[in-house]
Design goal:
The protein is an alpha+beta fold. Helix content is about 40%, strand content about 20%. The mean pLDDT is about 95. The structure holds zinc ion (ZN).
């Protein structure tokens, strides 16, 4: 039996400066939702807490770029993300936000408690200050040249070109992104949490007492602890955030890493007056679901904060996942390399469970993993449709056909029947054992194995043949198939809540508790089931191609925007420029030069004469489309023979980054022969 009386499940607070994508779901929210649903079905006292993380510099930067307030940014993404979670059935008990009043109060109280206990170090340091804008500059507000790779657009905390993490003082020629001015160093006072003081305690608590944590989590903690911990500032010079609640702290807010995890506490306070029971009673089991980028905050820094405060419990487990990639490339918001949840739902309406299934089945539990549309399609067509959907459909359709939907009774069981009935209980135990260890992929596999078992049972027993020779025997077969189906509604409920609700509807079955899984009499003889619909539909190749094309278009756009503009050529004198005679002209005739792919022969009216120009633009223009177009030409280029045709002059073209050619034409029609100067 569990030594805990209740559960507190937290899921990483998503940052409210962009929409959610499949990486978020796979890494954090699908596993936390499966686990929470499982505990609820078991009748445990469990609350699931989440909300938007709404402070920090990236939000203020985005607001500045868009010319709106930070509050407008977080209002926008809080609403979008809250809806996305609801749409995908991620059933938090509360989805709160750190801009709420109750959070400001909770975070201030937390800070003051540590402050009054003397847990902080006060330290003055020199930081960059923008004299024109009159404010200290967060690392992200400073840009300059990276000392490692020479990138001129490196940030004060990181060079995104070579990936080196930097501090603002490393930058060559630093400048403020707010005013563009050169920042000066100025003294500023901040409060620091002395993590080094907690190092021995953390070493024992994690490395000795929590050896059961997932290897990726334990390993990352060990590496942090082996490197040695340093005091870490808990405050920042910034306008947006929870103000530091002490004197001499004007213009200072709590640093977002200190502020955000306290958001779990304030959300619980908002949810229930009984919140202390979940946060302070040793009988509560707290579990943090997060992605690997958050391990240090949830395993080292937040526990150190809770320990310093003194009245809170600590997480019992932190089952962090690694990252999900998309089609072999890192998911990236800025490069738009992602499958956005709201776009998925408009492309695949009603198919939330297919994505939940696919993301759980290939979740990055122990190492980074890749999401591909082909695999998504295969999971749907070969597993959800061919195994689960097929078994359920056969069972329900045959029961309707043979018995008008009334569940038949079992008679004498043969050896295979006995084995299959026993296997239901075994599979339930397997699902449970894996869920208890946060092995969600394996748990899902075992749950689907129950549908596999059913499929094989029907294929071996062949009720559609036996009905002609031994109808009594078929009653037993269908009863067993129906018990398997009813059991599926329990063991798959945490994974596929939308589909199992449908299935329960067709079976006329109440919501069951977890402990009833394995029961061989969930559907009693005489119980009437309804007519089934389709649980899952095949996803066609065209739909998958459309998704892949969408990604390829993004990739092409990204490649183009990364192509550097060619630097300017050496300076020329005005006299030299004046020697070139550029004029407007109109195309009269255009045709391909025979036996060439690139050349067009154009007859043009220059206002001075009618002449022929041969131009290498055939790949980009249909000859007919050029006729009547006004163009610009170099009129005094020395004539030369191309493929035996004398070409007099040159047509001006702009060449785009991908090599595409575009005509350079006057914006309004002018007389032919007008000089361009
Ligand atoms: Zn660099």
């Amino acid at each position: 039996m569990s030594k805990f009386k209740r559960y507190l499940i937290t899921s990483a607070l998503p940052y409210a400066n962009g929409p959610l994508h499949i990486g978020h779901l796979a890494g954090v929210y699908v596993p936390s939702d499966i686990y929470t649903r499982y505990l609820r079905m078991k009748g445990e006292d469990v609350i699931s807490i989440c909300g938007s993380d709404e402070h920090g510099v990236p939000i203020t930067l985005k607001a500045r770029n868009e010319g709106v307030t930070p509050q407008e940014i977080v209002d926008r993404y809080h609403a979008i993300n809250k809806k996305a979670f609801e749409d995908f059935g991620i059933a938090f008990d509360i989805y709160s936000r750190t801009s709420n009043k109750i959070h400001y109060e909770t975070a201030s109280e937390f800070f003051l408690k540590l402050y009054n206990k003397g847990e902080f170090i006060e330290k003055t340091s020199e930081q960059y200050y923008d004299e024109e804008a009159g404010c200290f500059l967060a690392d992200r507000y400073i840009m300059g040249t990276c000392p490692h790779c020479g990138n001129e657009n490196a940030y004060g905390d990181q060079c995104e070109k070579c990936g080196t993490s930097l501090s603002p003082s490393d930058l060559i020629n630093p400048h403020s992104t707010i005013s563009g001015s050169k920042p000066v160093l100025k003294e500023t006072l901040h409060w620091y949490l002395p993590l080094d003081k907690y190092e021995p305690w953390l070493k024992k608590w994690i490395l000795e007492d929590h050896k059961e944590w997932k290897a990726n989590v334990y390993g990352q903690c060990k590496s942090w602890l082996d490197q040695g911990l340093q005091p870490r500032a808990v405050s920042r010079d910034l306008e947006w955030g929870v103000p530091v609640p002490v004197k001499n702290a004007e213009g200072k807010v709590l640093y977002v890493w200190f502020d955000a995890p306290i958001g779990y506490i304030s959300a619980t306070r908002e949810l229930t007056p009984d919140w202390e029971k979940y946060w302070k009673d040793k009988d509560t089991r707290m579990i943090h679901f997060i992605g690997k980028d958050n391990i240090v905050f949830h395993c080292i820094i937040f526990p150190a904060m809770l320990n310093a405060e003194g009245t809170f419990i600590l997480p019992d487990n932190v089952p962090a996942n690694e990252f999900l990639n998309l089609e072999s490339d890192k998911i990236s918001t800025s490069r738009n390399w992602a499958v956005w949840l709201h776009e998925y739902l408009s492309d695949f309406p009603g198919k939330q469970d297919v994505l939940r299934y696919s993301l759980c089945a290939s979740a990055p539990e122990t190492k980074d993993n890749d999401f591909t549309w082909k695999e998504f399609q295969a999971r749907n067509n070969n597993e959800l449709v061919a195994i689960l959907g097929n078994f359920v459909n056969r069972t329900l359709v045959l029961t309707n056909n043979y018995y008008a939907g009334s569940v038949p009774a079992r008679a004498k069981l043969d050896e295979n029947d006995e084995t299959v009935l026993k296997e239901i209980g075994t599979l339930k135990s397997n699902v449970e054992a894996n869920l208890d260890l946060f092995r969600f992929r394996e748990a899902l596999k075992e749950a689907i194995n129950l549908a596999r078992l059913g499929n094989k049972y029907l294929a071996d027993a062949e009720p559609w043949k036996v009905i002609k020779t031994d109808p009594e025997r078929v009653k037993t077969i269908m009863n067993i198939a129906l018990q398997i189906t009813a059991n599926l509604t329990i063991v798959l409920e945490p994974f596929l809540p939308f589909s199992m609700e449908k299935l329960r509807g067709w079976l006329n079955l109440e919501n069951k508790v977890w402990q009833e899984a394995g029961n061989k009499d969930l559907l009693l003889p005489g119980h009437t089931i309804g007519k089934p619909g389709l649980l899952f539909e095949k996803i066609e190749d065209e739909e998958i191609s459309r998704q892949i094309d969408k990604l390829m278009a993004t990739k092409k756009l990204n490649d183009l925007s990364s192509v550097k503009t060619v630097p300017t050529k050496d300076a020329v004198s005005f006299d030299d420029f004046s020697k070139i005679d550029i004029r407007t002209a109109t195309v009269l005739e255009a045709e391909k030069v025979p036996k060439t792919t690139k050349l067009l022969k154009l007859k043009i009216d220059t206002g001075l004469d009618i002449r022929t120009i041969v131009s290498g633009i055939a790949e980009y223009f249909d000859p007919q489309s050029l006729i009547g177009k006004q163009i610009s030409i170099v009129a005094n280029l020395e004539p030369r023979k191309i493929k035996g045709i004398e070409s007099k002059g040159m047509i001006l073209m702009a060449e785009d980054k991908d090599g595409k050619l575009v005509l350079v034409s006057p914006a309004d029609k002018v007389s032919n022969g007008s000089m361009i100067k």
